[in-house]
Amino acid sequence: MEQEINLEQLQQMKKAFEDADEDGSGELDIDQFTEKLGPHLRENTTKEEMDQLFMKIDADCGGTVDWDEFTNFFFLQRKVDSAADKQEWRFFPQDFKSKNETTSHHRDTVEKVYYCSAVDRYVTCGRDATLRLWSPTDLAHNKTISNGTSWVTDCVYMPTARRLVCTSMDRALSFYDISRGVADLTGRVYASGAMGVPLCITSAFNERDEQEHVIFGDSNGGVVMLQCGPRELPARDLIYTDAHRDYEYIHKDHTDWVTQVTMIHELGLVSSSLDATLKITDVSRGKVCHNVTVHSKGVNAFAYSKAFSVVASGGLERDVLIWQANTNHKVGELIGHSASISHLAVDNKRSQVISLAADKVIKIWDLRNCRCLQTITDVDWPHAEDSKPSVMMYDPHRHRLVTALHSPVIWRHHCVSDDVAGHKTPLCAALYNSAFHVVVSGDDSGTICMWNVLNGHQEGHFSKAHGNAKISAMTFDTNERRLLTAAADGSIKMWNFNNGSQLREFKHSEPPMEFTSLLFVHDDNRESNEVVATGWNCKVYIWEDQDEECVKEYRTFTGHREDILCMAQHAPAMLATGDYEGRINIWNMHSGERRMSLFHRANRYETAVEQLLFLPARQIGGAPTLLSCGGDGQMRVWRVGASGQLLCTLKAAQGCIDCVNTICCDNQHQFVVVGDTSGHLRVWDVSGHIDASSEAAAAASFKQVGLWRAHQMAISSVRHVEGRDLVVVACQDTLVSLWTMTGGLVGIFGKHTWKLDDPTSYADPQGLRTEPPMGEYDYLRSIAYTDDGDDLAPEASTSSASSSGSENLEGSSLTRPASQVMALRRMRAKEAAVSAARLSDQIHANLHLHQPAHVPHDVTVLQAEHQSSAILGKGDKKQPERGRAHHHTAGQRSSLIAAARKH
């Protein structure tokens, strides 16, 4: 809907917007927005569509939108339907060094690089007082033009007069005829009297006299148009008398150096200055139409995007500002440079902005979401002598970036990814968003995709969310309008996922470490919003969700001795965190007090608490239920009241050497779904009361209603689709799929299409082709383990449809060492998991799974157990004794991981 608004509709909505703003605040709430602007959009636009559009625009959840937010969304929103948006483009250097001798290079810094289409040559202007022409085909040096003894600062070609005009620091404007393969000086004039030094130049057609003119900006802040022609020899000063006028001032409104003048057909004459302003002038009327004051410091450069009708400008502030040319309002910022901006260019075809900073770093930005796509530093250049460019330009005819220091260098635009209809690396998670009816998925490479759950189509994507760091956790805010992501480098960011723009970042002062779990917690009583994260340094981090680009204030809870792997929250202030050694801490989020610690019985290296989920009390005043899934493949049911009580233990993972990677429930807490490391999904009905009278009664309260193998690899996450008996599944095989609660496949996002209200359009509605759950014996036979630690290809075997397995080997000695090795290998790349697998490799180097008779029986060395218990207080009481012989700290595990990955 939002992609179909044209200029006429936009003008009508502008008037409607102003009429609806009865209190003069300049903002509309959702009801005013829907009522007043809805009639100006597509016919039959529903209220739900208008509400979704409002929420997309109001990404900060402020409850209102102003006109700037509204127009910003339409100017910069992502258009995923175009072919260019389904590709990822980057610049790569092309080496032409063999074509030229160093004697053809400038002897001093280049001040300007310019493409002259009339003669198909690149022109460079240097401080060595020369202009040099280069072939775009191979950068072969074509000609050198000596312009005297002063710096050449800028040049432009006059197509009507067929002259190349340059400005220089000796106050001269020189005209050259280069159309016949020679470079004849045909005219030269000098700025005279109180005029400043010409610094920049452009050409324009004046409708008043129907003539082409040269326009330059000078060091006094003036913008001057020459009236004299290109044939002025011998050289002379410019004259301005009543009888003869060689020039006229377009304006003298700048109060400092004019840094750039450019004639833009859609806008007029645009000039920038070190006085922190840009001015848009109607040359035919000689009137300044707009005075742009979005900058607080001097402006060095600007570039215009035809596709979005916006201007990018930059200077001493280090950030590139994006502003609308028709309203002069800022619509975005490109933040990332650490030095002032010296040059800017725009690739209109791919909606990219290219910026060069004073520290010689080049950045390429996506104009639609203000994200940096590529950074070019000195290490990226093929030759060190070219790695400090002084100028740059973008050649739209050949789709290349041209830079220069002493000679030009070409960076070609290449497509590095044509297929973005899905993910290329293992998935971290896929979240269902009920506000927009989309699924948002993120993978290890930092790519985030949006999928329409109603039909399976991709609705958008953006990449490199955390640079080169992999995404390790994802969640939505309470209203599901903003996305939070955490990464392996310890960064946490908040996004408007509809257009990929970053809203804020949550900082900390700890050393880099991976965050493993992320929550957004809203407290109605305190009217507060908090971001909670846990990770590999045993701490819980809490930030207030402040309206700032960078949130630096935070608090921490300490009480774990091992890496925290998961957490869950129960309103209003109960937080549960689970760690690698099997401890579950229950916290008061307000005070930071640890109320109790829960432990469970498990074998060494199977103690890790992988997932936590709260179920609310079924009766008023009752205690909530906490579900914990461990590395041993079991799900434990705890009653968390004044003290912690283990009610029962249920088998959750299908294979004896699997563990649970993910758990979820529906909004009514009637169904619980878990996914394991071999791709199985298991569904329980928990709609009834959980009977705590005995372990058997509690276990009977969980009625299994579904079990099937959804994928061939480990499940990364599972989420329930609100209002429907469907679950969204993300897998390590890079696929995101949609299933019914009974094992019917709706489809795979990006591969299948469907109509959600029409089950006949589903890929496999009855689950007839869905792979049945693997039996224990078949599961073991499908895994081959060799002495060198490599996993072989699965053997052909007939999967059993039995939910309990054709052979129940659980509890036997066969499962113990194998489970440590294989289950931990299948877990997502966690340091603790890999190191534990490595330890098991070393201890049981001769273990084979081919025949049960070959398995040794003396494997009790790995069976140090914890007693299921609850410890109250702040951790000052003695913890269960742990076998220290094979226990490793997080730092020691890190060393083991490197060796494991190398192996």
Automatic annotation (TrEMBL):
Listed A to Z, the keywords are: Calcium, Repeat, WD repeat
GO MF term (any one) = calcium ion binding
SMART domains listed in its UniProt record: EFh (SM00054), WD40 (SM00320)
**InterPro entries given for it?**
EF-hand-dom_pair, EF_Hand_1_Ca_BS, EF_hand_dom, WD-EF-hand_domain, WD40/YVTN_repeat-like_dom_sf, WD40_repeat_CS, WD40_repeat_dom_sf, WD40_rpt
Pfam families, alphabetically?
EF-hand_7 (PF13499), WD40 (PF00400)
- Per UniProt, the ranges with Low complexity bias are 796-815
Entry keyword Nucleotidyltransferase: no
Judging by the UniProt lineage, the source's domain of life is Eukaryota
Query: What are the EF-hand domain coordinates in residue numbering?
Result: 8-43, 45-80
- Which spans of this chain does UniProt mark as WD repeats? 103-135, 292-333, 334-375, 471-505, 557-597
Record PANTHER family: WD40 REPEAT DOMAIN 95 (PTHR44324:SF4)
Annotated protein name in UniProt: EF-hand domain-containing protein
Which CDD domains did the record assign?
A: EFh, WD40
